[in-house]
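Feature request disguised as a bug: please show the residue count (702) next to 3-hydroxyacyl-CoA dehydrogenase in the output. Example input:
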Amino acid sequence: MSDIKKVNDQISIESVGDVALVCINFPPVNAAGIGVREGLSKAIETLNAEGRVKAIAIYAAGRTFVAGADITEFDKPLMQPSLPETLNTIEASRIPVICVLHGTALGGGLELALAAHGRIALEGTRIGLPEVFLGLLPGAGGTQRLPRLTGMAFALDVALSGRQVYAKEALDQGAIDRIASGDPRDVALSAAQEVVAGTLATRRTCDLDSELDQAAIDGTRAMLKKKQAHLVSPHLIVDAVEQSAGDFDAGLKFESDSFMACLDTPQRAGLIHAFFGERAVSNIAEAKGAPRDIAKIGVIGGGTMGSGIATSCLIAGYTVRLIEVAQEGLDRGMATITKNLEGAVRRSKMSAEARDAALGRLHPALGLDALADVDLVIEAVFEQMEVKKDIFGKLDTICKKGAILASNTSYLDINEIADCTARPGDVIGLHFFSPAHVMRLLEIVQGAKTDADVLATGFALAKKLKKVGVLAQVCDGFIGNRILAHYSKMASYLVLDGASPQEVDTALEEFGFAMGPHKVGDLAGLDIGWMTRKRKAGTRDPRERYAGDLADRICEQGWFGRKTGKGYYLYDDGAAVPPVPNEAVAGFIDAIRAEKGITPKTFSNQEIVDRYMTAMIVEATRVVADGTAKRPVDIDMVFLFGYGFPRFRGGPLHYADTIGAAELVSRIETYAKDDEDYWQVPDLLRKMAADGTSFADLNKEG
Ligand code: T1G
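Example output, currently without the count:
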């Protein structure tokens, strides 16, 4: 016989004999919002005051146990009880309290479980402390309680990596006490009854000791100094875990103070913007239509892009037909896909069985006729309009009615391609980023005649491929490459005007980029840009300052970067040593400056960052203003997921808000004194400066 009583909209108590089951029900992920916190506190206080039951089990309804604090509350005033207070109430309960976990018990959700006197996880449960992804540290006892159960080394690994830990590992490490199967409520009932029967031991985590593991602490500090010096929260996580070796309450206080310090950092704002932005970009009307059914995908082109796209589709479970024009190319593509899948197994991204199944769904073929029965074609051949138009003209007659015809072009006009078919409504741009089976960005390019369900299918495909789909309108370079084409000139201008390539790279790496633009160019191959410049030579605007002098001179030596051992830097074949500047480049720079009568200036790191970032922001503003991108947040996500923009900065336009439109306008006007053609204030930015509005305001307007 059970009696269910609602504490509030999120929390209910079910009394069954001498145990009580507390159910959390706050869709979609049972985030620990104010209602959950109030309800849990009240439930525990009431049950202790009544003293009727001998054990309490907390579980959650829906898809997952508590997935963390309610991130939407972070920009609002703190509402009591805080999560730490709620968890301390649970831990102090006279009646033993256990938690039953399922789905993803993350952040505050895991901390809730750690504050209980015992933990049971259903099979398939994952636990984790992803606060570090948000520029935070566990702020509700995680840094104090987890080490008491598992030791410092595991606690540091989990809190700093933010990774999700499967139940088996969590059990082995002592973070949970048992793995069970069944419905969360039924497992909660039987576990509570076991507590009463004495067959399931319980103890307060705060009563345990956390043994100082100095080696783990010191080793972690050394790693962070090298890899994450510019981030705030990881270092505080180590400090807090170290404090767990001391007095529990003092440790909680240290953790709380550290958490509040992180809450105010621009890094936290940037990372939270990234978290919600990743979801917002596909949460748009264009993505909501009913998608077409896709099961078989044809990929045309077995080169780097085509193989990467095919790999991504295979990993997602699709059947893939790989098309090439010659057997050699087809064999090369098949070999690349096989290697990509082996890599996925090696990185534990897929099992060996899944790899074999994927290879079983891969069907190579010569010629386009093999595409008659596919649901979607993704063309990934050479970036030449004539080649693409010829292919799409043939696909139009070969492919079945309703098949979607997509081009992976990185900048060509989708409308021109669509118009060489009798079915422009079925044509769309799906711009993947190399390596396509690793990079998460997918620019979904809407042609003027692309059907609504085709667009929706693009977003559904992105989700299935675990990619971040961003809507882009047709223009040269769409969103990312159009903006890149503008600000990459700034890196060249800075070098011609006085900085060295390595000074530009160092300044931008200190800003947070993993690699500066010259190292990126060397990695990608300088010949790619060289070919583009030569292709565009005839149409280049004579008024514009040419940015390719130095790169052309380097390429004319046959130096294309890492693949030739020489570029802006020198590369020691296979050696793990960092690249050293190519001294010959300095000679080219001096010669070009002399030819152009340039007196070199000195640029501080900040000046380099300011000019480079302002150039990026200028073109990004234009891309928002002309509607190529739907909102500023869409551009931010393009740069986080496709261009290695430092995630803690939130993206170029989130970063722009930390400077402000008025200051940006003033900077551009100052720079324009040296080059008024390159430096022009976008009308939208001037309006924002006049109105005192931000890109965040534009995001809200949608
Ligand atoms: N708070 C508020 N909303 C959240 C949320 C959260 N913690 N997590 C997810 N959502 C929303 C999300 O925005 C989306 O909304 C919907 O739920 C489905 O999410 C004190 C301070 C749990 C693995 O960082 O990793 O605890 O778009 O699309 O792919 O120490 O959500 O539908 O309107 O991602 O199945 C720590 C973040 C917080 C976990 C599910 N926790 N969430 O993935 O669904 S800080 C996290 C996730 C903290 C304490 C600290 C994932 C997921 P909408 P979704 P999913």
